[in-house]
Automatic annotation (TrEMBL):
<protein>
    <submittedName>
        <fullName>2-C-methyl-D-erythritol 4-phosphate cytidylyltransferase</fullName>
    </submittedName>
</protein>
<dbReference type="InterPro" id="IPR050088">
    <property type="entry name" value="IspD/TarI_cytidylyltransf_bact"/>
</dbReference>
<dbReference type="GO" id="GO:0016779">
    <property type="term" value="F:nucleotidyltransferase activity"/>
</dbReference>
<dbReference type="InterPro" id="IPR034683">
    <property type="entry name" value="IspD/TarI"/>
</dbReference>
<keyword id="KW-0548">Nucleotidyltransferase</keyword>
<keyword id="KW-0808">Transferase</keyword>
<dbReference type="InterPro" id="IPR029044">
    <property type="entry name" value="Nucleotide-diphossugar_trans"/>
</dbReference>
<dbReference type="Pfam" id="PF01128">
    <property type="entry name" value="IspD"/>
</dbReference>
Length: 216
């Protein structure tokens, strides 16, 4: 693998409600998420972590009855006890410091290839870490002791999406952090996110995703 290559890490926690094997219009979220990465034409390898009981199921999700399989672009690696899925995926990638790494949430399965490209381009342009964001449109209140107190100024709020991009050197420093972006602080560069990159975590989100796919 060349130093200019891009590796995407897709750490998963094995949750089921909904999980990455949940079907949207007949395809698992994992399949759609990985296809979006590959269709960007700037990702050379995808590494997906999986609980031991689901390695075979995840691998099957990367096979297609028609057209080329995603499997030759991907590796599914088994989780290790006591090691976070992100650290496990990072170690399995065996990256050089100069490579670009994406971290993607498979529940954001409809993130468009153009979003992937914009994140990679920002890292190539010199950013150590990049995150796509969208404005927060809801009114956000602070609640203390069950009582509404202050209202957050939406001008300063952004919702964070994925894929997030890093130099391999930067991600190595923070891969064990519960919040890698916060650990890097001011080093994080922002790019415009996309409405389709919603996190699919409920039956309502699944219905929205189905509707989006019907409109494409």
């Amino acid at each position: 693998m060349t130093e200019s290559s891009v590796v995407a890490l897709v750490p998963t926690d094995g949750s089921e409600e909904p999980g990455v094997l949940t079907l949207v219009k007949g395809e698992p979220l994992l399949t759609r998420a990985v296809r979006g990465l590959i269709d960007s034409q700037c990702v050379d390898l995808v590494i997906v972590t999986a609980p031991a009981r689901r390695v075979a199921s995840y691998e099957n999700a990367l096979l297609f009855p028609e057209g080329p399989s995603l499997k030759h672009h991907c590796r599914v690696v088994e989780d290790r006890p006591g090691v976070s899925p992100l650290r496990r995926a990072f170690d399995a990638a065996e990256l050089s410091a100069e490579q670009i790494v994406l971290v993607h949430d498979a529940l954001r399965a409809l993130a468009p290839p153009a979003l992937v490209e914009s994140v990679v381009e920002a890292v190539r342009a010199g950013a150590r870490a990049v995150v796509p964001v969208v404005p927060v449109t809801d009114t956000v209140k602070i609640v203390e002791g069950g009582v509404l107190t202050t209202t957050e100024d939406r001008a300063f709020l952004r919702a964070v999406q994925s894929p997030q991009g890093y130099t391999a050197e930067a991600l190595r420093e923070v891969a064990d952090s519960p919040d890698p972006l916060a650990a890097l602080g001011a080093a994080v560069h922002l790019v415009d996110g996309h409405p389709n990159a919603l996190e699919i975590t409920s039956a309502f989100d699944l219905a929205v995703a189905e509707s989006l796919l019907e409109s494409l």
